[in-house]
């Protein structure tokens, strides 16, 4: 039996992806990111100073906070319950680690970038949309800080994007939506840089196990999705050539 995708996509096809920069006004980076029906508002703010362990080092820091809105899912969840669940902590740490891989913290100086990922609508793949859109928001924030003279040089050393992949009926599928995520026996998230170097892989067998061959197939699908996302990010970021240095 072959899995029929509810939206008729090919197994290796992404959902329609879009980035909407300047979605809100006050944060230097604000990008509404859509992967099909998944919608995440990614905002990047900057503050002077760093956590204690970096004080006096001359180096900056990037941290992330992730939340779903109460009505982001099919059944409303109380705000209290959405606060700091294990899932929330895991996701916000993943977003922070992923985006930190693209930053030269000496160039940032003793400042902290905070990436807020607020999920307006969750149809699976919210963490990967947060990372991919978070990078676009980060570039917009850096652009503004350069223009304001807060930064002398860009701290962006590369690009980061992420996508989900899963196994359904033993076969790989790219960028699962919620009904697929529920049916998948293996749930995979891949984070890569502009050289398709692996930053992080999360790959969980929800049922049974998966083989080395299937792992390679999942990575091939992830890589293909990320190649497309890297292009979409580049197209969404103004002043790309001045922003991303050291590629
Ligand atoms: N989900 C939900 N309630 C929850 C957690 C998740 O409805 O408390 C749904 C939501 O659509 C989410 C999907 O399940 O996008 C997959 O969640 P997962 O934890 O795998 O993370 P994601 O794929 O969003 O990164």
Automatic annotation (TrEMBL):
InterPro entries from the UniProt entry: ExoRNase_PH_dom1 (IPR001247), ExoRNase_PH_dom2 (IPR015847), ExoRNase_PH_dom2_sf (IPR036345), PNPase/RNase_PH_dom_sf (IPR027408), Ribosomal_Su5_D2-typ_SF (IPR020568), RNase_PH (IPR050080), RNase_PH_bac-type (IPR002381), RNase_PH_CS (IPR018336)
Reactions it catalyzes: tRNA(n+1) + phosphate = tRNA(n) + a ribonucleoside 5'-diphosphate
Listed CDD domains: RNase_PH_bact
Chain residues that bind phosphate: 87, 125-127
Domain Exoribonuclease phosphorolytic positions: 13-140, 159-225
Keywords of the record: Nucleotidyltransferase, RNA-binding, rRNA processing, Transferase, tRNA processing, tRNA-binding
Enzyme Commission code(s) on record: 2.7.7.56
Entries under Pfam families matching the protein: RNase_PH, RNase_PH_C
Protein family: Belongs to the RNase PH family.
Function comment: Phosphorolytic 3'-5' exoribonuclease that plays an important role in tRNA 3'-end maturation. Removes nucleotide residues following the 3'-CCA terminus of tRNAs; can also add nucleotides to the ends of RNA molecules by using nucleoside diphosphates as substrates, but this may not be physiologically important. Probably plays a role in initiation of 16S rRNA degradation (leading to ribosome degradation) during starvation.
Subunit structure: Homohexameric ring arranged as a trimer of dimers.
Protein known as: Ribonuclease PH
High-level lineage: Bacteria, Bacillati, Cyanobacteriota, Cyanophyceae, Nostocales
Gene name of the encoded protein: rph
């Amino acid at each position: 039996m072959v899995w029929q995708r509810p939206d008729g996509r090919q197994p290796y096809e992404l959902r329609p992806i879009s980035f909407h920069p300047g979605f809100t006004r006050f944060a230097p980076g604000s990008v509404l990111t859509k992967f099909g029906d998944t919608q995440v508002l990614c905002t990047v703010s900057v503050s002077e100073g760093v956590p204690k362990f970096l004080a006096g080092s001359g180096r900056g820091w990037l941290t992330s906070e992730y939340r779903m809105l109460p009505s982001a899912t099919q059944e409303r969840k109380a705000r209290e319950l959405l606060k700091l669940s294990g899932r929330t902590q895991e996701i916000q740490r993943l977003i922070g680690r992923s985006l930190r891989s693209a930053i030269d913290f000496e160039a940032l100086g003793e400042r902290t970038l905070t990436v807020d990922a607020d999920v307006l609508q969750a149809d699976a793949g919210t963490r990967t949309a947060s990372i991919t859109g978070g990078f676009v928001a980060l570039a917009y924030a850096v652009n503004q800080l350069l223009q304001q003279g807060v930064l002398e040089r860009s701290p962006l050393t590369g690009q980061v994007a992420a996508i989900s992949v899963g196994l359904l009926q033993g076969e790989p599928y790219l960028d699962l939506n919620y009904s697929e995520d529920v049916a998948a026996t293996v749930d995979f998230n891949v984070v890569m840089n502009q050289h398709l170097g692996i930053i992080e892989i999360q790959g969980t067998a929800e049922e049974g196990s998966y083989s080395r061959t299937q792992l390679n197939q999942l990575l091939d699908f992830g890589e293909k999705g990320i190649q497309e996302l890297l292009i979409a990010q580049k197209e969404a970021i103004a002043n790309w050539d001045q922003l991303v240095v050291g590629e």
